[in-house]
Amino acid sequence: LKALTETLQEGALEDPPAARRFLLRMDDEIDNLTQLVHELLELSRIESGKVPLEQRATRPEELLGLVAERMQIQAARVGLALRVECPADLPPVNADRSRIEQVLVNLVHNAIKFTPKGEIFLSAYRESRMVVFLVRDTGVGITAEDLSRIFERFFKADRSRSGGGTGLGLSIARHMVEAHGGRIWAESTPG
Q1: What is the DSSP track for 61-96?
Q2: Mean pLDDT across the chain, nearest whole number?
Q3: Phi, psi (deg, nearest 5) at residue 181
Q4: Are strands 130-137 and 119-127 parallel, antiparallel or unpaired?
């Protein structure tokens, strides 16, 4: 932002098309900073235990349906199919619906970002006394070295294609799942 404002002050204001480009870049940078601050505050609240969870019985298929509905347009825009596979007889889970929806949306968003072609699957299944939610894609995959670190704050597995983003989304997801008494993990193979 400082470099952009200095460039404007040093004469770019006299060139309206260039000034407009600089203002658009500044607007993007402000959005990125706003997102970073919001996510840092959210992570800080979660880690300190100051996020009140409004847990109640939630049907897994309804939760997955909400996430799919919310992310369908974004997936279609880049040519990806987004499918939901969820048995209707799964028991309800005790969860803060909006917080777990946020976790799943984050996972689907990452899947969209790193899946150049193919499909993304949302599903849930019963395992012992737990319900497991799964986001699976046909994306580029993650190396074993990076896989162990993807839930760390600010970590970006593929630095060459990470683009925007703060590197906090998966850390927030981990803390939110753990606040619910659950656990989150990833399995992947490059390619």
Answers
A1: HHHHHHHHHHHHHHHHHTT-EEEEE--TTPPPEEE-
A2: 86
A3: 85, 15
A4: antiparallel
Q: How far is CA 10 from the centre of its chain?
A: 39
Q: How far apart are CA 45 and CA 68, in angstroms?
A: 27
Q: Quick check: 100 and 86 in contact, CB under 8 A?
A: no
- Contact status, residue 146 vs residue 190, Cβ threshold 8 Å: no
Beta bridge partners of 121: 83, 136
Q: How far apart are CA 86 and CA 83, in angstroms?
A: 10
Q: Please tell me which residue, 93 or 189, carries the higher pLDDT value.
A: 93
Question: What is the spatial distance between Cα 117 and Cα 115, in angstroms, rounded to a whole number?
Answer: 6
Residue 71 φ then ψ, to 5°: -105, -5
Tokens of 46: 């979660």
Query: Which spans in 15-58 are helix H?
Result: 16-47
Q: Which amino acid makes up residue 22?
A: F
Query: For residue 167, what pLDDT band results from cuts at 50, 70 and 90?
Result: confident
